[in-house]
Amino acid sequence: MASKRVEELISSMSLEEKLGEMTQLAPFFFGVDESMDLTGPMAELGLQEEDIKYIGSTLNSFGAEKNIAMQKKHMAEQPHGIPLLFMADVIHGFRTIFPIPLAMGCSFQPAACEKAAEVAAKESTAAGIQLTFAPMADLVRDPRWGRVMESPGEDPYLNARMTEAAVKGFQGEDPREKGRMAACVKHFAGYGAAEGGRDYNTVDLSDGILREFYLPAYHAGIDAGAKMVMTSFNIMNRIPAGASKMLFDQILRKEWGFTGTVISDFAAANETIIHGYAKDGAEAAQRYIQAGCDIEMMSSHYIHHGKELLEQGKLSMEEIDRSVRHILTLKEELGLFENPFKDADPEAEKALALCDEHRAAARDVARKSVVLLKNEGVLPLDSKKKGLKIGLAGPFATSRNVLGGWAGTGSHVSTLEMGMQEMFPDAELVTAMTEELGAMQEGIFDVEDRVEETCKALRNCDVILAAVGENPMDTGEAASRTCLRLSPNQEKLLYELHKLGKPVVMILFSGRPLEIRPVLPYADAVVQAWFLGTEAGTALADILSGAYNPSGRLSISFPQTVGQIPVYYNHYRTGRPLGSAEGRYVSRYLDCPNEPLFPFGYGLSYARYQYSGFQVAVDQDGILTKVTVENISNTAGVETVQCYTHDLAGSVVRPVMELKAFQQVELAPHQKQGVTFRITREMLRFPNDRSEFVFEPGEFEIMVGHSSSEVLTGKVSLDA
Ligand code: BGC
Fold it and tell me: In this structure, what are the phi and psi dihedrals at residue 615, rounded to the nearest 5 degrees?
């Protein structure tokens, strides 16, 4: 039951008002950016100027002054003075940009993710935004999919922790509070499982796989109180996801008790026709509304067909009212009836954008997101050494294009070169071949070959940093790739630099795991830099100099080659696993190992850690595991201790490993610390073949260690 105000409004609203409330349009339609153009998008959606006054929300309209003006005008025209709701994609920062979500997943620090969301909420609410289309909770096992950059990674548990942290960061205790905003968990559901990694492609997942791997992160976001859920573009088991009653009515609303608002993805309701699921706009509207989608984003079938569907008895007023109730309640929860501008404030907008405090937070999260993949005695570099000659080559050496997709209105980027200049004031930096890499999106596949002159210019350097990768435009939405190698001239650069006989540090800027096996031998150290945002340069200089000891761990496996995809750590066992039998008939590749190049949870540090005293015991509450971690080096560091389980036999097969918990411990040189994990029966539940989450007694392996491939293992039996 909604509030009295909401119920009263619903009972006095016209059908046009209700259907308008259920429609979201871009700011263009409100005549703010450009004058109304009845031949452009307006005509494409078949809308008239008078339809606009009923519209309930808009997307990606930025700027306090503009949004305040738009709100005033709109409320004056809306018959009940109902305020617009301003939504936007505030994904990893707004003006101060944080690392892409995949990188933040690698921090293994939900608090870092929460901080990033909190800062993004402060900056964007001041600029007139009230709800963000984030976090994206889609689990991904396929780095060919461009949107892997927006996901925390491949693991249901880690993704769940990151998703709930982001929701908390955006919403705080109450999204109505100043500087907080409503969060939208997306894309429900399974968008990350697109076949072949091609965006928008078919998704077909058994109920068991869906519930075991793909759903937990969305669920965690809902449990954390997210106010909105967005549908996804893909079909799920032959039905467009947003039209799936199974997903929205059964799982989201009935099983998880979600009471918030559902929004379609961009024109996704219309795409049910293109999918060949709805025969026309009327059927698209009917199916989307009946599955439970309250707001249609950027298509207009609700507006055009709502009336006829009601008249034909294909839709009931109760179904329409249910949606309007969700939307008005959301507006009420954001306090918009009292203060329709929420936190929009031109002064605060200016003061908060890129302020020192936010930049410091971005730098901190950025350095925690970097993963050191290889280090053969090269790093850290000595920032105090006078006259150190550092070569800096490659398309990301001096580039500002390191924010990653969805970077809002980010600017003022610290480049790698700037970060190095600041951190290494006494060093000589020599740059070469720093032209930016164009985007495949724009038909450019490589940088110019200037390898020979670059090698000449850098041959006397003490160390060479090769800043290589992919253009951020080639990651994100509609940016799938089949070849994940570096462009040929970047590979050539690494190969030739290596021949100079000087230590080469490869710094990889990418929105996905790239296939770096071919160039790995030519780099003495490899730093996975992702797209780190505004403070990319300073954060990387922190890492390279050792001012910050790398602590990031991979939240997604790096394949040896594209042919291995999908390759992920928490797979099921085959009946013929490698090593189980002599001879040919085992599950393997003839030309490549089964293991990824770098596994989930992997990441190096400048410190070394030793595990000892591993104990596993059972008590009435479940399993208790203890281990002692010692820093056996002279460098302080942060170790991420990971705890995995393996259920040896179940009524359905169980993954070989499942992350159940992790803890970060900060260790001074030679310091030891005990780490305890408690694994309850509740944590060992899984969906059985009737989709019920059950705990099944039996034997379990408990694994604790540094990554998914470096663990200590114990075995216990657990009764019911
Ligand atoms: C994306 C969503 C995004 C929406 C609005 C769509 O294309 O899939 O993630 O929130 O656009 O910008």
Answer: -135, 145
Q: Is the pLDDT of residue 188 over 60?
A: yes
Q: pLDDT tens digits, residue range 377-386?
A: 999 999 999 9
Q: Give the number of other Cβ atoms within 10 Å of residue 157's Cβ.
A: 19
Query: Ligand 1, atom 10: nearest CA belongs to which residue?
Result: 133
Task: Please give the backbone phi and psi of residue 552, each rounded to the nearest 5 degrees, phi first.
Answer: -70, 150
Kindly state whether residues 357 and 318 are assigned to the same domain. no
Q: Looking at the structure, tell me whether residues 96 and 203 fall in a common domain.
A: yes
- In this predicted model, what pLDDT tens digit does every residue of 65-80 receive, in sequence order? 999 999 999 999 999 9
Asked, for residue 600, whether it belongs to a domain, the answer is no
Residues 310 and 359 in one domain: no
The answer to whether residues 155 and 55 belong to one domain is yes
Average confidence (pLDDT) over 487-507: 98
521 prior amide bond cis, ω within 30: no
- The CA-based angle 139-654-191, given to 5 degrees, is 20
Residue-range definition of the domain harbouring residue 237: 18-339
Instruction: Kindly state whether residues 374 and 230 are assigned to the same domain.
Output: no
Q: Do 326 and 356 lie in a common domain?
A: no
Residue type, 119: V
Beta-strand relationship, 504-509 and 609-619:
unpaired
Rounded Cα–Cα distance for residues 592 and 594 (Å): 7
Q: Which of 503, 532, 564 is the last residue of a domain?
A: 564
Q: Which DSSP category does 390 fall into?
A: E
Q: How many angstroms does the Cα of residue 708 sit away from the middle of ligand 1?
A: 33
> What's the CA gap between 139 and 162, in Å, rounded?
12
Q: Are 152 and 104 in contact (CB under 8 A)?
A: yes
Placement of tokens 């830099």 in the chain: 529
Per DSSP, the residues of 158-203 read: HHHHHHHHHHHHHH-S-TTSTT--EEEEEEETTGGG-GGG-TT--B
* Same-domain status, 301 and 358: no
Residue 602 in domain? no
My answer on whether 333 and 372 are in the same domain is no
pLDDT at residue 447 above 90? yes
Smallest CA separation from ligand 1 atom 6, residue: 266
Q: Could you read off the pLDDT of 338-378 as tens digits, one per residue?
A: 999 999 999 999 999 999 999 999 999 999 999 999 999 99
Residue with CA closest to ligand 1 atom 12? 89
Pocket of ligand 1 (CB under 6 A): 59-60, 89, 133, 186, 265-266, 477
> Quick check: pTM over 0.85?
yes
Task: Please check the confidence at residue 32 and state whether its pLDDT lies above 70.
Answer: no
Number of domains in the chain: 3
Q: Which amino acid is at 645?
A: T
CB atoms near residue 399 (< 10 Å): 23
